[in-house]
């Protein structure tokens, strides 16, 4: 039995933008309302910490360099984050049995259940939303969010121009179509 949604008529770009302008604040608001476990409220965790914890939950213990690669940050940045969370008792660092110069980072056993419970709803929601899509559709979705992220970093051209008022731009011609 297929879990794919029935086909619905497509949206024009403007219709999609309108729908997303309504949806995005609700998504952000809902994410912000996820209650931080009581035992972690005093830790002053930031969104960057949630990404780090999510990666360790999803992929298991790993080196700081591997973690930096998955977080798309410099190894020194990842190391600082790991150090901060280690001092707070959230993460543990241990020697790599195969190479004693390397350190393996993991979520502390005592913190694992509360972090798992806290982040599970978001991971499950993404799993449920993405699983009906084909791999190319999932790639398009992720690329679209990445393009949105990049677009919100750059000022509108010209400053303050509404989308219909600015010049159209073409997408980069790389393999994914987005860069």
CATH level-four homologous superfamily name of the largest domain: Winged helix-like DNA-binding domain superfamily/Winged helix DNA-binding domain
The end-to-end distance, rounded to whole angstroms, is 36 Å
Question: What is the strand content?
Answer: 5-15%
- Main sheet record: 3 strands, antiparallel
Which features does this protein show?
elongated; 51% helix; 179 residues; mainly alpha; 6 helices; 2 domains; Arc Repressor Mutant, subunit A; three-stranded antiparallel β-sheet
Explained architecture:
The chain has 179 residues and is mainly alpha-helical. The protein folds into two domains: 43-131, Orthogonal Bundle (Arc Repressor Mutant, subunit A), CATH 1.10.10; 133-179. It is built from six helices and three strands. It has a three-stranded antiparallel beta sheet with strand order 1-3-2. A hairpin with a 7-residue loop joins strand 2 (91-95) and strand 3 (103-107). Helix 2 (47-59) crosses helix 5 (112-130) and helix 3 packs across helix 4 (75-87). The longest helix has 20 residues, at 13-32.
